[in-house]
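Researcher: Good morning. I'm working through a list of sequences from a screen, and I'd like to move beyond sequence-only analysis. For each chain I'm collecting a predicted structure so we can compare shapes side by side. This is the next one on the list. No need for commentary yet; just the structure.
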Amino acid sequence: MGSVWSVSAHRVVEGLADFCGYRTWYRITGSLDATKPPVVILHGGPGGGHDYTEAFKGLAARGRVVIHYDQLGCGRSTHLPDKGVDFWTVQLFLDELANLLQVLEITGAYHVVGQSWGGMLGAEHGVTRPAGLRSLVIADSPASMRLWIEEADPARFAAARGAGDAAAP
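Model: Good morning. Structure tokens for this chain:
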């Protein structure tokens, strides 16, 4: 019995994009020559890899090219364990995404799906109003990090105290 989500008949290409002396791993499922603009998947983290977003490659069975990539510092991209917190900026990840779009020559038309941290990154990308961005889907991401922390901290601290953590505020 065949599955409508099977992508086995679709072309899969993996590569490494040079970025500021580092390398960003990517995988394209489908052909960039397709008539529909590709969808770029932004994974959570930072620090997580693309693996848990694999199900999105099923979109290729419906004619949509899917691009997964591992953000710098995780997955199959360059790891930089000696870099300090001042290195890991939102701008770094925005620049990496812009670089990947240019390397793949899709700046003219593409969609973005961002999950968790990837949704926040997608929102930051979206507010720059890139000409080629056709749509942005934000999944499981806070609209405001400040509000999220204000609401989450009391629950986290209560859980820590309940677990016997004497150092919990």
